[in-house]
Amino acid sequence: MPQPEASDVVRSTRPAYFGPFSELRVEVFGVPDMQRDIMADGEGNFSFPLVGTIAAAGKAPSDVAEEIRGKLAGRYIRNPQVTVNFKSSTNPLAVQSMAVTVDGQVNRSGAYPVVGRVTLMRAVALAGGLNEFAKLEDVVVFREVAGKKYVAIYNLEAIRRGNYADPEIFPNDVVVVGDSPARRRFKEILQITPAFLSPLVLAAREF
Questions:
Q1: Looking at residue 120, what is its pLDDT?
Q2: How far apart are CA 81 and CA 94, in angstroms?
Q3: Closest CA to 142 of 130, 151, 153, 155
Q4: Among 10, 18, 57, 152, which residue has the least CB neighbours within 10 Å?
Q5: What is the CA radius of gyration of the chain?
Q6: E strand or H helix at 110, and its extent?
Q7: What does the mean pLDDT of the chain come to?
Q8: Which domains does the chain have, with CATH numbers?
Q9: Positive/negative CA dihedral, 157, 159, 162, 163
């Protein structure tokens, strides 16, 4: 499957998520002592006054702001107005952790930040690993490159056996493990294609 270019990430309408070492700006309106720049730690966590530790990894700025607001409301500030943003930078990609979405037969479906090099096996691990019903031979990756949409079908057991390399996963990819509505669209292909020796990559009009 072709690798996305930087422009594919920049023009994406999907939200950015905090990850390890993300730099963010937190402001509580009308409370100067609660306006500060913060860097998350290696696990994507940070501490904030009166709130304690916030687990920001995999969350959008609005989600983190709402969590802080909820912990301040009533106990410390009557009606706190909280804003959380990525800290400004000349290179916006340097402060954002874009996400990969993992769905299907995994233990924790959701969006996970892509920090450093992430492979397909690693993406599945981020989602809590496979559940007991997971179909290892039916793993679909959706990707958009230069406005063109692609679908790749992989077999995790084949990757474990060394039949082919563990493919790299990029921001904005969607990984679907096993049975799911997205996988069912390609039911006929999956039935006739042996995925053990090599992955199958298709161009798609829509997914």
A1: 94
A2: 27
A3: 151
A4: 10
A5: 20
A6: strand 110-113
A7: 78
A8: 17-94 (3.30.1950.10), 98-204 (3.10.560.10)
A9: positive
